[in-house]
Structure formats: C-alpha cells, structure tokens
Amino acid sequence: MAARKILMGGIAVGVVLSFSGVALAQSNIYSFTGEVDLGVGYTFFESSGQHYIGARGDTVYVVTSNGWTWCAKSIDGGQTFDLPVLVNSTSTGVNPSMRVDTGGVVYVAYQDEYADIRFSKSTDGGVSFTPGVKVNDDTIPQTGQEKPAIAVNNKGQIFIAWRDQRYSAPQTHQTVFTAASYDGGQSFTPNIQGNDTSTDLGGTIDIAVDDVGRVYVVWMPNRRGIILSRSIDSGQTFPLQTEVADVPTDSTIAGSGIQSIAVGNELIGVVWQDRRFEQFTLRFSVSQDYGQTFSPSVRVDDDSDLSDTTAPQAPSLAWKNGIFYVAWHEYGAKQRISFSYSTNSGQSFVPSMTVDSFSSAHAFPSLEVNGSGKAFAAWLDSREDPFYVEDFRTLVAWGGPNSVKGDLNLDSLLTAVDVVLELNAVFLGQPYPASFETADVNCDGELTPADTVLELNAVFLENRFPCS
C-alpha cells in the first residue's frame, strides 16, 4: 500500500492506494435481443466491408436491397422500424454501403443497372434521399463497377472505393478505384486507382478515413494476403501499400478472405476470415503508426472446430470509445451470428457470444455501436424460407453490456484503467465505452469528483459502491 497524490483538475488530492485490485474473470458482458424483420421481401446482397447499419444515439438506420436500395429507420434503439424509404433514383440499386456521421446525415453508395457507382444521402433523418450522383468517371458503358464501400469523416468529406474492370478485356481483370467528394457529395474527384498496377484485385475491399486526410483502403489481392493502401492527401494519391495479414509463406496454406476495417484513436484495425494450415478462423491485426506496419494477428473467434464445417465468415468491424467490436457469421453446422470485442486495442478478444436465437442460414452481418456502448447488428437470414438459400430477409438485433458498476472500459474488471477513464470523464469531459449509469457510481445523476473518489476506493481498496 502506498500514499500518492493525484492531480484532479488542478487540485492535488491525497489518496491511499492498494494495488490488489478486484479480481474478476474477463468475460463477454453483452446480451442481445430483438430480431426485427425489416419487411423488404426476400433479398440477397453484398455490402463491402459489411457496413449497412448505422446509429446516432438510439436512432438506427439500416440499408438493404432487393433490386432497389431501401433505408429503414428506428428511433427507439432498434425495437421498431418505420416503413423503408427508397434510396436509389435509378431503376435499380444493389449492394449498398452506408455510414452515418455525427450530425445524423446518412450517406449511401450503391451500384446501378448500368454497372455504375452512385452516391446518395439524406439530411432529413432518412425521410428522403438525394438523386444518385455518378461516382465513377469512365466513359465506357457497363464496364463492371461493383460493390462500393463508403467512408465519411467529421469534416463532411466522402470517400468511396469499389471493384472496377475498366482496364479489363474481356472484363476479368479487377482493380480498386476510389473517388472523394469535398462538397458533400455534389461532385466527386477524378477516379484514382487504389491498388498498384502489378497486383490484381482478387477479392473484397473496404475503406476508412480519419479527420486529418488519411484514407485507408484494404483489399484482397489475387494471392494470399490482405493489403492496405494509404493516402495522406485526402485520397488524391495512394503511394503506400502494406501487407496486413501475416499469412505464412508455405505454399500449402490457403489465403485470407473477406475483411473489414475500422479506425479510431490513431489505431487502424483490420479483421478478416483466415485459412491457414487448413484451419478456418477469424483474425485481427492493428496498426499504431497510421498503416505503415501491422501487429502479428490474433484470433477473434473461439470455436474449437477449425474445419470448414464451422468456418467464421464475413466479419464486420466497428470502433467506438476505445473498443474494437466484431460481428461475424458462423458458417456450417452452427449457423449463427457471433459477437466479440477487444478492450485492449486488439491484443485479445473476449469470448464470443451468439447474437441471434434461430439456427438458420445467415450471411453478411453488419455491426454498429453508439456512443453509450449499445451495439446494433443486422444480417441476412433465411428462416422464413429455408428451402431457398439465396432468399434472405434483413433482420436487426440490439444489445448492451450487463455492466459491472465502475467498469468504464467494459472488460469486466475493475482496474486502474477505469480510474483513469473516470478522472478523464469528470475533469476533461472525455468519452468512455460504458454507459453513464456505469460511470455514475454514487447514482446521483451526475459525474463529480465524488465519483472519482469512490472509483479509486473500489479499485485500490476493494470498497463497495454505495449503489448498484
């Protein structure tokens, strides 16, 4: 035990610290409910990076497609949804990707019937969407632009990446193209190729952006691995390419699959479905130097069966308030949507849990987490028509942490990390992953220095909180 002084908002406070802490086993403290059917009819689509759900507080938006692209809105945290609104102004709209910014503007990219990439947005809370703006600038009709991924930053800048065949003859050579809009989507910059000319695109893509002009595109080459292309000039050039996946070089080992990217607190996280040594797993790697290098990958899923009968697929990655969250589809015998998260910047993930309650064919889950740590998951589900595996409905569930009082980082432990988060919340107004009720440890309806004293006593003296 040691006496220390902690500077709290300029006030030196003397406290007695015991470093025994509170020993709790780390676990997944989330639980999910819901499973609302959006009612758009049978549909199957692919959303690059699995980004077709977004949230701002308890307002939730989901885009889906059945030959047209629709947007459904919930204002009660995903419990009920309004009738879907048509997004595309073209005769068709498929494979949508969607983001919601901090102001509540909804941004959607989709592909139309002419194999062009289109952009539309809603500034009235999903009531209506602007006419689709063509993003690709090639002049050759029907050259095979498809499966866009969209990202936006807090400056209102929009970045879209997609699979493109304009350099192909006879349209089998895939490349990554990107474009940016600096005027809210009224116009887009000339298209830039995101992958190098010597490496063909072999699979899926995703895109993320920060607020200082760095754009990150992850893509699967026509070989084993995952590659990140980075721009530091707001998408004008992509000079840096980094190998993300640490796939062994043994030629008998199969490569990596569908990936998803998320950026937060100067961390760039990438998750992908992996197959090495004939084992099917989900892996995650993180960069702490803006994409120049990536850490050795860690496993996300915890399934003991590593064969293709229970292969994890199509992950969706989100970041919020210091935590990486992942949802994915367990293919095969289990047929479920799984969920996990990391509270230590991707060094490890908590045991996974099941989001849905019905064992049916699933595909392509999408995940979003709001500022209070509430998670929203959407996925394609065939429970209403199990005999046709291509016929899916879009379902949505929501979940939240069954939190321990004072556990501000949601790792199921009370540690010095929670003390730091409490101090920063009280004196600096900084956000934290948990709910307000978790941080308000004296239950008086506000965060004050009294909460920090109680947090210190709970962590270092193992004192109980006065309320629960």
In brief:
With 468 residues, the chain is mostly beta strands. The chain has helices spanning 416-428, 436-439, 449-460; strands at 2-8, 11-17, 30-37, 53-56, 59-65, 69-74, 85-86, 94-100, 106-111, 117-122, 133-134, 146-152, 158-164, 175-181, 192-193, 201-209, 215-221, 227-231, 240-243, 256-264, 267-276, 279-287, 298-299, 312-320, 323-330, 336-342, 353-354, 362-369, 375-381, 393-401.
Descriptive report:
The protein is mainly beta. It has 2 domains: 2-26 and 406-460, Type 1 dockerin domain (Orthogonal Bundle); 37-400, Neuraminidase. 6% of the residues lie in helices and 41% in strands. It has helices at 416-428, 436-439, 449-460; strands spanning 2-8, 11-17, 30-37, 53-56, 59-65, 69-74, 85-86, 94-100, 106-111, 117-122, 133-134, 146-152, 158-164, 175-181, 192-193, 201-209, 215-221, 227-231, 240-243, 256-264, 267-276, 279-287, 298-299, 312-320, 323-330, 336-342, 353-354, 362-369, 375-381, 393-401. The strands form 8 sheets. It has a 4-stranded antiparallel beta sheet, with no helix packed on it. A 4-stranded antiparallel beta sheet has the order 4-5-6-7, with no helix packed on it. The protein has a 4-stranded antiparallel beta sheet with strand order 8-9-10-11, with no helix packed on it. Strand 21 and strand 22 form a beta hairpin. Helix 1 (416-428) runs antiparallel to helix 3. The longest helix has 13 residues, at 416-428.
